[in-house]
Each structure stands twice: as structure tokens, then as C-alpha cells.
Fold this protein.
Amino acid sequence: MDFKLKPLWKDKPLLNKYDRWRQQAKLLKLSKKACLKLEWFIYYHSKAQSAATTARYFGITRKTFYKWFAVFDQSNLRALEESSRAPINARKKQLTRFEEDSILGLRKANPEFGKMKIRRLYQRRYNQTISSWKIQLVIEKYHLQRRPKKSDRHFKKQSISKRKTIELKKQQKPGFLVAFDTIVIFRNGLQRYIVTGIDTVSKIAWARMYTTHSSATTKDLFLRLYAVVQGNILNVCQDNGSEFEKYFAELMASLSIPQYFSRVKTPKDNPVCERFNRTLKEEFLRQGNWTSDIQEFNRRLTKWLIKYNTVRPHQSLNYLTPFEYHFNQALVTDVSV
């Protein structure tokens, strides 16, 4: 008895060309976007026979349809993949050796400054303009990015005190309102206090560390800041701490300077000084300047404060230093008078 074997392919019906296109796209592992474009042309050839109908059905423009219809090749479905849109002749990053060395030197000398502050320092020192992306390029090239310490503190919403406070209508002139606060530091079993003060308009600031926390220390800090701003203090604000009573209050009364108090457990009432305290911690304390020696610490702190007031550009002052801003405002006042 003779047996004839039938080919296996005769038992299965042949796929139509559209299903073969889909199988081919699956084998080629085309992207979702390329497979969607393939469905455009399957619909066009099998049902619509009209570019307008196909475009309307898939929610695309006829221009887009014709663009890909021109490159569609059923023998090479990879043509439906989108190629890179980067320009062939891309602009090259032009950074001279002098610019790179200068930026590198400024960054290493001021690791706490961002690219915009470095840009301002570069313009001031070399009397040349430079783009911030060049500075960012150097920072990334030499791995000089800042890695600020993440705070692990969890703040709870504080209820606003019902105590009535006197509102002061602020004026945008240096010395109108000077804010004070205290930073308490615990290191190696020691407790130290840094009293801080800052002009809320010009951002001229001063600070000093003490071993005690009393009105005598805040009075001492006030007199130092009073000398720095040449007596240009019209109002002061602080929290309700006891260090701002007695000698400090007596001094304010003798100088006829009104005192304004922030609400209990409401640091947002004194935001400028709170922000300065954060800057002092990030750009001074965390840069290895801590020492238990009071005299040495205050010497380092004074050096940093001079840099803060005369060298460091401030974003809120349009990248001027506090002294530059104060001097410019004084000129404007003199001209207007």
C-alpha cells in the first residue's frame, strides 16, 4: 500500500499580506509608534483607499500621513522607525583653556556657590561675560557638583498664635527693618550660641558666637552690626526669646528704635534671618569651619562674613553683593534728593 505524505504547509491557510506585515513587525520588534504607522497603511490599503479618510480615522494630519507614506516599504518595515532628530552639524561647545582654568579656580575657591554666582564672580574679576552653561560644563567635567545634606527633620504644622501683633508696612530701603535670631549648637558635649542679624532689604548681615545666651550677647551683636551699617537701623524684629529683653531692650529704647516680635512658634514671621541662618550653616559650618575655640571660630566667621557681604552675589539682589546694593541705593537716594 502506497502512502503519500502531504506537506504540513498545505494544512494551514496562507496569511494575507496584512497579517504577514504584522507578523514581520513582531519579529523585527518594532516600536509601538512604528506599529501604529503600519496600521495606518493596512487600513489605507484594505479599507479606506483614501488618505483623508485614513488621517481622519487615526486623528492625524494628511501631511503626516503622506510623509510616512513616502518612506513606507513593505519589504523593509524598519523604515517606519523614527530616526534621530539631532542636527547633522551640531554646534560644538566652545570653551577656551583660559575660561576653563578660570572657572575651575573660582569653583574650587567657592564650592558653596552655584553656577549663576560663579558667573557673576567671573564677570567681576575678568570683566568679561560668560554663559552659565559653560560653568555647568566645567562643574560636571571635574565632578564638582554640590551634594547638600538632606534634612531628616520632620516639621509639624504649628497652630498660629492668637496673640495680636502690630503689623509693620515694609519699605524697600536699606536699614528699614533689621532681623535678629539665635542658632543653638550642640557639639561634643558643648553648647554654643550664634547670634545673627541681617538687614532684610540690603542683606548686610553679621553674626558672632558666644558661650552664653543672654541679652548682653544680643546687645554686643547689635552694636557690631550697627557699626557695619553705620547706624542705619530704623526698626528691629526678633522672636520672643529672653535674650532680646533687658540690656537689648534698654539699648533699643535709648536709640529710639522700635521692636517688633514674631508670633510664637511662627518662624515664617522672620524669613530673611531664618534663610541667613541656613546659609551660614551650609556655606560656613558644613565647610569644616567648626572649632570649640571661641576666638578662632569668630575669626573664621568674621572672614566669611566679609566675603558674604562684599564678594558673594545674592540672587535676591540681582546678583549684587549686599554692599553693592546698599551703595547703589544710597546713590539713588542722593540723586532723588
